[in-house]
Amino acid sequence: MRTRVLPGVAAAAALLISGCSSGGGAPSPAPSTGTPAATAGFPVPVADCAGRETVIDGPPARIVTSNAAALEMLLELGAGERVVGTGYPPGQGYLPGALAERGARVPVLGQQGIAKEKLLGSGADLYVDTFGPMAMGGGTGAAPSEQEFAAAGIKHVFLLSTACAAQGKAPRTDLAEVQRDVERLGAVTGTADRARRLTAAMAEKTGRVTAALAALPADRRPSYFFFDVDAGTKQPMAVCNRQVANAVITLAGARNVFADCDASFRPVGWEEVVARNPDWIQLGIRNKGGEEENRHAYEEAEQFLRTFPATQGLAAVREGRFLRIGSEVTTIAGVRNADTVQQIARTLHPDLVKVGP
User: Fold this and answer.
1) Domain boundaries in the chain?
2) How far apart are CA 349 and CA 210, in angstroms?
3) What percent helix, strand, coil does the chain show, rounded to 5?
4) Which CATH number applies to 216-348?
5) pTM: predicted TM-score of the whole model, two decimal places
6) CATH number of the domain located at residue range(s) 9-200 in this protein
7) What one-character-per-residue DSSP string does 215-267 give?
8) For 116-173, how does the pLDDT look when each residue is reduced to its tens digit (9 = 90+)?
9) Cα-flanking dihedrals φ and ψ of residue 86, to 5°?
10) 17 vs 7: CA distance, rounded Å
């Protein structure tokens, strides 16, 4: 992904990605299936973070995605066969079973960001960008300019829920922008009906949680710390109120202990975490490729908090109030954010929330 320029930059880099997978090479030939024949609903105007519009004249045939977040949305929309390359590929075990096989077939154009020359030479007619104006990571240099995209025949569109997050004017407390991203991509790829079904399912899941918690007063909503384990333990990386995780936590009936931070992420000190004394701590690990590997990573994270002098005295640590929920489905914008809302809410409010599998 394109990283934020922050101390501990590995944390910010990985919070919008899903790990690394093997693979590479040039994009495969344009697929013979998966592209809608009809052009109903086009042209489609889509805006960037500054409101500048790009007009999509018809369904794209060759799509490149900046990272696993955009790739997963396209797979969910049924447009995965048209994706001819991605940066920051999904790590092993990250994509759910129904999507994993199709995702594994997508050529990897960069284990991190895609180098400008490779992106412009990819043969793509659409680039879905999760990062927007954020600085590019992975030593890949500057992103192409809009003039360079145009010269290469590539339409450039954004996931606004992530690309514009840091520029937001208010805290993010719902998944509306994520749902709009799904519907924008549906419009752009000619899969609008599928997009509407996906966002309706998301809204139904979160709506049931909201209804169950409607009478719960603010002072009974526990405080919550998302511990980004893979960002490192020396200096925690907090998720702030512009990040999608803040919306997930809020919808689930909790209070992000760093909700007063007007950004997407911020490096903090352990003394700040201790001072805010969270009632619950999410052990946010990135998928390690298998159930046993994930279990081991969760256990290591919990053991760190139980033995680290700064945190071992926290009530949440002493009483084992931990949630083992992956980082990706909490901090990466996508359809599965709604499932995470349900999972957190069931754990924190078991007497009120009885939804989901």
Assistant:
1) 9-200, 216-348
2) 12
3) 40, 15, 50
4) 3.40.50.1980
5) 0.87
6) 3.40.50.1980
7) T--GGGS-EEEEEEGGG-SSS-EEE-TTSHHHHHHHHTT-EETTTT--SSEEE
8) 999 999 999 999 999 876 544 455 568 899 999 999 999 999 999 999 988 888 999 9
9) -150, 155
10) 18
